[in-house]
Design goal:
With 288 residues, the protein is an alpha/beta fold. Helix content is 49%, strand content 14%. It contains twelve helices and nine strands. The strands form two sheets. Strands 3-2-1-4-5-6 form a six-stranded parallel β-sheet, with helices on both faces. The structure holds nicotinamide-adenine-dinucleotide (NAD).
């Protein structure tokens, strides 16, 4: 397929490279010359504007920083410029309300559009092993699926427009709470005289077991290799976890959902991000 890709940063760069590897033709646009140069090295054709990149394509994929940018790029550069009937896929993490608004506008302009945020970080984007959670009509999902399959290991239809974003922020709110709980448990175990490895051996096969413990242990030298073993460098940055928690709290307020632990997790990450925004989110244990 001929696909336009807008936003080739840490995540989008690897995703576009995987589209090329799977035989697609990619027309790339980014505001950053550096990102465009890297895209060219991966085999993308690069363009000076988004409007040119979307000319004649069958699909548009975007991976952008926030909802305001997504809305403005689609409204000014995609609608009316990409051929009518093209499939539009926004893979950025943005607020549910903006995702629904942009998809509604896309449908009015004659496009099938999905929100398709990802689980998995830069390594999964480069390796083509992302999980996509997708919101949109059955028809839009059916058209987006083959494009997403070229960049990920799982593509799941979450329901109507915006439901991909809803799944993403609920999942990441749970992850943040779970990670803080895991750090608290390891911290208290140590203060009570339990060796961290011994606590891991017990809890990882008991009812406290969770992903933050057994797949991404926040304690160096315990469990499988994780950012904790690299001084909390790499992985999923605290600043990005904070972004997702802010989106989660906005959505909770709009939906009138009770999320006291989500709010507390957001406050703890906000405080930690002031000085340590670039560290992996599992470093939150340092604040306890
Ligand atoms: P990034 O900052 O590395 O990349 C964003 C890119 O968008 C940059 O290259 C920037 O120049 C470009 N851009 C900004 N405004 C633009 C515009 N108007 N037109 C064209 N290009 C524009 O960010 P990232 O880490 O790649 O994250 C992208 C999205 O993926 C975000 O929504 C983020 O929340 C989400 N996400 C990131 C991760 C991660 O681990 N980095 C994981 C999951 C989801």
């Amino acid at each position: 397929m001929k696909i336009a890709f807008i936003g080739l940063g840490n995540m989008g760069g690897g995703m576009a490279a995987n589209l090329i590897k799977n035989g697609h033709e990619v027309r790339a646009f980014d505001l950053s010359d550096e990102a465009l140069k890297a895209a060219k090295d991966h085999g993308c054709n690069t363009f000076a504007t988004a409007k040119e990149a979307v000319e004649g394509v069958e699909a548009v994929v975007s991976m952008l920083p926030n909802g305001g940018i997504v809305k403005s790029v689609y409204e000014s550069d995609v609608f009316g410029h990409a051929p009518e009937g093209a499939a539009l896929l926004d893979c950025s993490t943005i607020d549910v309300a903006t995702a629904r608004e942009v998809i509604e506008a896309a449908e009015k302009a004659g496009y099938d559009m999905v929100d398709a945020p990802v689980s998995g970080g830069i390594a999964a984007a480069n390796g083509g092993t992302l999980t996509f959670m997708v919101g949109g009509t059955d028809k839009a999902f059916g058209r987006a699926k083959p494009v997403l399959e070229a960049m990920g290991k799982a593509v799941i239809h979450a329901g109507d427009a915006g439901n991909g974003q809803a799944a993403k922020i609920c999942n990441n709110m749970l992850l943040a709470i779970q990670m803080i709980g895991t750090c608290e448990a390891f911290g208290m175990a140590e203060k009570l005289g339990l060796d961290p490895q011994t606590f891991y051996d017990i809890s990882s096969v008991s009812s406290g077991q969770c992903w933050s413990m057994t797949s991404y242990c926040p304690v160096p030298g315990v469990g499988p290799q994780s950012p904790a073993d690299n001084d909390y460098k790499g992985g999923f940055a605290t600043a990005l976890m904070l972004k997702d928690l802010k989106l989660a709290m906005e959505a909770a307020e709009t939906a009138n959902a009770g999320t006291p632990l989500g709010k507390h997790a957001k406050d703890l990450y906000a405080k930690f991000a002031d000085e340590h925004g670039s560290l992996d989110f599992s470093a939150i244990g340092r604040t306890l």
